[in-house]
Amino acid sequence: MRGTSAAQFFRVSGTAGQATAQSTHGRDAEYCTGPNVRETSTNPVTEGIQMKELDPQVVAMLEEMRRQAALQSTAAPPATWLERLAAMRARIARPTPLRGTPEAVASVADRTLPGRGGPIPVRIYDPRGDHLDGAAAEPAPALVYYHGGGFVAGNLDSHDVLMRALANRAGCVVVAVDYRLAPEHPYPAATDDAWAALQWLADHAADVKVDAARLAVGGDSAGGLLAAHVAQRAKREGLSLRLQLLLYPNTDATMSRPSWQSFGTSAYLVDRHDMKERYDAWLPPEIDRASPEVSPLFAQDLSGLAPALIVTADHDPLCDEGNEYAAKLRGARVKVEHVCWQGMVHGFASMAGALDAGKALIERSAAALRGALS
């Protein structure tokens, strides 16, 4: 399927979703939820759902997903959560034109870093070509990136297309981290690995020709929570960051924001019951889900954190917690650019093969990285 045009594969039409951009330092953010929600029954994918207008390309994509799921529904569905998890991991591991075409990068190398729980696999994307033949290279800025997947899925391959695009467009080294997943490795395995990877890069920047003074962290979804956690810890431990790139991040493990009720169904790709099961797998019962260690939104002091680009989608159950985190950072006088993408669903940066908004988000993220790391 790699040779197939994703736009043709999904037969998308219409225009890309519009972003509501806010440079929210000192200004009110425009939230995505509220009274402008209306009921519609014209979309067979979301019939009976309280919704605002979805982008036409999203509608076409969801309809194609539904059609393909119906074609593959002859086998009995997984009966248990662990069986569903295995099926989800297998699905995420498969290449798909939905993500877009993987770009060539001058250097892509897998290696392991030392971690508290054992070696941490990483993949290092280096867009520079001037040092590959042994020539000296100027130290480059770097982004440490944590993939999404609800703390239970995702790996280096699931986000490979996105990482390649960011490395090439931002002109920085990207270090993608394959942190340990639940339920095999519950909390604090993922947060430990996330911090260990950043700390290693800061301490060994010269080994990979990276400038330790120009580091950023980023992540999408669950990886956004890890990036926010790491940014908070970096402030406490005196490690300077230039940017935190948070794409539709989890920030509230209590799942108590209204958008979980409005959009937390499979019609919008992230079901609230499935997400609760993922949190249950990641967080042992004794862990307070309102603790800032697992819910960055509830940190008491956010002052002094790295500048942030926070992107949310208005049809995403994670929308409210991302919006509120942007507002709290702004209230702490952190420089924040908050972009709420209208008509979009969760995960759209990884749908750039079908969604113009996914491509635009990658460009927006790369521009923020270039500006912060220059």
Automatic annotation (TrEMBL):
Pfam families: Abhydrolase_3 (PF07859). InterPro entries: AB_hydrolase_3, AB_hydrolase_fold, GDXG_lipolytic_enzyme. Keywords: Hydrolase. SUPFAM superfamilies: alpha/beta-Hydrolases. Its EC number is 3.1.1.-. GO terms for molecular function: hydrolase activity. Residues 143-349 form the Alpha/beta hydrolase fold-3 domain. The keyword Hydrolase applies. It is an enzyme of class 3 (hydrolase). It comes from the Bacteria. Residues 15-24 have a biased composition (Polar residues). Residues 14-42 are annotated as: Disordered. Belongs to the 'GDXG' lipolytic enzyme family. PANTHER family: AB HYDROLASE SUPERFAMILY PROTEIN C4A8.06C, ALPHA_BETA HYDROLASE FOLD-3 DOMAIN-CONTAINING PROTEIN-RELATED. This is Acetyl esterase. It comes from Paraburkholderia solisilvae.
